[in-house]
Write a structure and sequence with these properties.
Layout: H1 17-41, H2 48-54, H3 62-80, H4 87-130
């Protein structure tokens, strides 16, 4: 396999073969994560490429879609071609997956939690404003 002269080496000569295989396995795992997220979100398509593309219809940000394609390619290259990526390249894809999880799951849940807290605060405030305090004299 020919490598572009400016491409970084996939692993150093001192990298144990087990580590290189672990990075390839990580690439396959990240691809699997993307596939499961696509299914969970309801993306349609006959292959993962199409499913990732369909995420735009589901209002998934383009940055997440880009990251998912990167993970798909890393996984495909790892499993089908036996291509070894450098550890920092694999770590970058891990970061893209982490970012996607934050955007798709963590941040929306946090926003819902904060909206519920604001609603509870408003409701409690209105209840106090309507209920007369015990020190208020009543007519009698």
């Amino acid at each position: 396999m020919h490598r572009h002269s400016r491409a970084p080496p996939p692993t150093s000569p001192s990298t144990p073969p087990e580590a290189a295989r672990a990075f390839r396995l990580a690439g396959v795992g990240y691809r699997s994560v993307v596939e499961e997220i696509c299914k969970e979100r309801g993306a349609a398509g006959r292959n993962l490429y199409a499913m990732i593309g369909d995420l735009a219809r589901l209002h998934v940000p383009q940055s997440v879609i880009y990251g998912f394609h990167e993970a798909r390619l890393l996984g495909n290259d790892s499993v089908h071609d036996g291509l070894e990526y450098a550890p920092d390249e694999v770590a970058d894809v891990a970061g893209l997956i982490e970012e996607a999880v934050l955007v798709l799951y963590v941040e929306p849940a946090e926003r819902q939690r904060m909206a519920a807290a604001r609603l509870a605060r408003r409701t409690a405030h209105r209840a106090r404003a309507v209920t007369p305090s015990p020190s208020t004299p009543t007519e009698g």
